[in-house]
Structure formats: structure tokens, C-alpha cells
# Entry
Amino acid sequence: MNTETPPTELLDTLQHYLEQTDFAHLAAVDQPDLTVLFTDLAGLKSEVKAESRQFKATLDTLNDAVSALKTDNQVLADELAASAERLKQQVRESQRTLLLDIIDIYDRLSEGFRVLQNYRPVDALFNHSKKQDVRFINGFGKGQEITLKRFEQLLQRRNVFSIDCVGKPFDAHTMKTLEVGHDPKLENGIVLEELRKGFLFEDQILRLAEVKVNKL
# Structure
């Protein structure tokens, strides 16, 4: 059959096909029960809703767990930060205690060095050994001076520096007045003498300087 086949021949062919074909088997096919179908769809809908509610409940539980975990993590982070700060303070206090002990030794050495510098042998008692005594004292004094400088370097390496006082206005934050003097050439409140050195540790007061202050 082609495009040139007459229409009458096409109609004859279709009629022959319809007469020869048995369509009874099509009527025998079971048709769907709409009631059962709607019932099944309603059940499926209910199951979907139940699954959705269960999924939402599970999701809410997970969200609560995540929120609780975040809270616990924040609490832990705060505790760790507080512990780190306490440890830092403890280390700092231990450093301060150690540095004050070093400064105490430094004070004793400084006082000994000052005594050596001011010492003068008495001619009447030590005339026979005066030269030896002077050499010994001078040598011992140089040793003391070297030791003091090493102590000062040790303190400086740990960010400990002495407070500059003499000739400066009195500062209550870094100094403590033990004595007062009178020098009309200087202004009131000027530090005349340092009685005991004060020190700063990392820009904070480690020990107040004890001073003699001018008072007019």
C-alpha cells in the first residue's frame, strides 16, 4: 500500500481487519474498582502523613541534640578559657614570687657592694697589711659589681626594669615615701634620694620604690 492507493481500497482493507479481529478479550479485562483505588490512595496519604510527622519529630530531636551540643561546647569552651586564665594568673604569680626573691638577693648584694665602696682601712690597726687589704677589697668589690650586673641582665631578660626615681616628681603609683627632706633649690615633691629600688614587671608594678621626697 502506498500514497497512490485508492480510498475505496483503504476502506475495504479496514473493514476486512475489523471483521477478522476478535475484540472479546478486551471486554474480559478486569476494570479497576474506584472505591478500592480511592481507599488505597487514602491509606497511602495517611502513611505519608505519618511518615512526615515521624520525620519532623526526628528532625526536631536532631535539632535539639545539635542545640544541646552547641551549648555544651560553649560551656566547655568557657571553662577551658577560664582554666587557661587561672593558669596564666598562677604562672604570673609564681613568676612574681620568684622575681621578688631574686630582687631580694640583688638588694643584699647591692648593700654589700655599697659597704665595700665606702670602706676605708684604719691606718692604726692595719698599717702592716693596708696595701693587701685594699687590693683584696677592691678585687672583691669588682667581683660584686660583676655579679650585680649579671643580676640586672637576668631581670631585664625577664622584662623587669628598675624605676627611675631620683630627680623626678613623686609618683604614688610607683613610689612610696619613707622620708622627707628640704632642698630649697628643688620644687616640692621632687625625689631627693632612692632608699630602696622599685621595679616594673612587664609594665606593671612588681615592687614600689621607697624614696625620700623634697618638702618645702
Observations:
- The longest helix spans residues 34-118.
